[in-house]
Design brief:
Layout lengths: L10 H32 L2 H28 L2 H24 L5 H29 L2 H32 L4 H24 L17 H10 L2 H17 L2 H12 L4 H23 L6 H19 L4 H29 L5 H12 L2 H16 L1 H34 L8 E2 L5 E2 L3
Antiparallel strand pairs: 1-2
Helix pairs in contact: 1-2, 1-4, 1-5, 1-6, 2-4, 2-9, 2-13, 2-14, 3-4, 3-6, 4-13, 5-6, 5-10, 5-12, 8-11, 8-12, 8-14, 8-15, 9-10, 9-15, 10-12, 11-12, 11-15, 14-15
Keywords: Cell membrane, Membrane, Transmembrane, Transmembrane helix, Transport
Pfam families: MFS_3
Membrane topology: Multi-pass membrane protein
């Protein structure tokens, strides 16, 4: 099998990846439909930013606790419970929209409830990969997970736009699309049931007791390489990955397009994102330098996209945006899992997700405000520049710390001559 897809030779991972692909398509159906629903209800870029923030805010609030839970109980069981926890609020929101009873405050509450379930599901899902495959295939499996997610992004937004347009582009049309997503979680649940639990590589369970979250924080603080990775993904999440906002504003405000064209932008972005995930899948030994470089490429591509004069020229830059951002995020995720102690992996991954996904609620209202008051173009240029400065400064700081650490390891030889056993006079080098 090709090195790009080597993890698929493992039966458990193959079943899990298939169920995840269907669920990921449903997720992107909802993301697109939900953004369109908010715009239909409010016409406000700021309201869209608040919705995205409320959906991701639980990652900031609950991820450390979720990581401890993932280290203390069966990840497979936890994942099954959380599939139901995510399906329920999606189903309620879809029904409210279909019946025409939905209001903006209901969207806010239900997206927060959904985000809470996802906050507890995500650390278990990310770290569960290491139980399905061996260490040699771990980076590949993590990257293929991202490829699956972005295959959903490739298919979902365009399909959502077509479905919404075909159903009349109204509030009720978005509801039907959201209901489809609620049903898609059943495929992941089925995959978990069909897996062979006897061949999973289960790590030792973390001991119960106080201080588990603090222990995870101390572990991360002791690792400068992890701190660099966390800083990179923070700037990506807070200022770079607000595509639901920026693409919606560019499609509607800047280029005057509708739901179909908005959905197409998401699919075009996913072409590059899928390529980035597959590129990362070929790297069995990720490197920090590669991650920093890819983040800086994203910064430039994001700024360039905001300067494009037409809808199609903007769309033409999006594959590079997707390629660079997913290469950065996926490779960082793989490196974090490969270098973390197995008993700490759930907590480290949860902190990674807290920083990565939890940073989006911090940046989403800011980007939404820029988009509403300065325009979609300004929002893209400012966000890209901020990502570049943040990652660049973090990379330089890490290089400085590393040089200091290496110098501290050099033995301090006495600056004097000495005589060896063979009688030769030598000076230490």
């Amino acid at each position: 099998m090709s090195p790009t897809f080597s993890a698929l030779s493992v039966r458990n991972y193959r079943i899990y990846a298939l169920g995840g692909l269907v669920s990921n398509i449903g997720t992107w159906l909802q993301n697109t439909a939900q953004a369109w629903l908010v715009l239909q209800l409010t016409g406000s870029g700021a309201a869209l930013g608040i919705t995205v923030a409320l959906q991701l805010l639980p990652s900031l609030l609950f991820s450390p606790i979720a990581g401890v839970l993932a280290d203390r109980m069966s990840k497979r069981r936890l994942l099954a419970i959380m599939q139901l926890g995510m399906a329920l609020p999606c189903g309620v929101l879809g029904v409210l929209a279909v019946t025409g009873l939905v209001e903006t405050w209901q969207v806010y509450i239900l997206t927060f409830v959904f985000g809470s379930a996802r906050a507890f599901e995500a650390p278990a899902r990310q770290s569960f990969v290491s139980e399905m495959v061996d260490i040699e295939r771990l980076a590949n499996a993590v990257s293929l997970n991202s490829a699956s997610f972005n295959s959903g992004r490739l298919i979902g937004p365009g399909l959502a736009g077509l479905l919404i347009a075909a159903l009349g582009s109204g509030v009720d049309a978005t509801g039907w699309v959201i209901v489809i997503n609620a049903l898609s979680y059943g495929f992941t649940l089925l995959a978990l049931v069909l897996m062979d639990g006897t061949v999973l590589h289960r790590p030792p369970m973390a001991e119960r007791g106080r201080g588990a979250v603090r222990e995870g924080l101390r572990y991360v603080r002791s690792r400068p390489d992890l701190l660099l990775l966390f800083t990179c993904v923070f700037f990506l999440g807070a200022f770079g990955m607000n595509f639901q906002i920026t693409s919606a504003l560019m499609a509607t405000e800047v280029f005057g397009k509708g739901a179909g064209e908005f959905g197409v932008l998401g699919s075009i972005l996913a072409i590059g994102s899928l390529a980035g995930a597959l590129l990362a899948a070929r790297r069995s030994h990720p490197r920090l330098r590669f991650i920093v470089g890819a983040g800086l490429v994203f910064s430039v591509a994001q700024m360039v996209s905001g300067l494009m004069p037409t809808y199609w020229s903007y769309a033409a830059v999006l594959p590079l945006v997707g390629l660079s951002v997913l290469t950065t995020a996926t490779t960082a995720n793989a490196l974090i899992q490969m270098t973390s102690a197995p008993s700490m992996r759930g907590r480290v991954v949860s902190l990674y997700l807290m920083v990565f996904l939890g940073s989006v609620p911090l940046g989403a209202p800011i980007i939404g405000w820029f988009g509403e008051h300065l325009g979609g173009r300004a929002a893209l240029v400012i966000s890209g520049a901020t990502v570049g400065v943040g990652i660049g400064v973090a990379g330089l700081a890490y290089a400085r710390v590393r040089r200091v650490s290496l110098r501290s390891l050099v033995p301090r030889w006495p600056l004097r001559h000495h005589v060896t056993e063979d009688g030769l006079d030598q000076h230490p080098s």
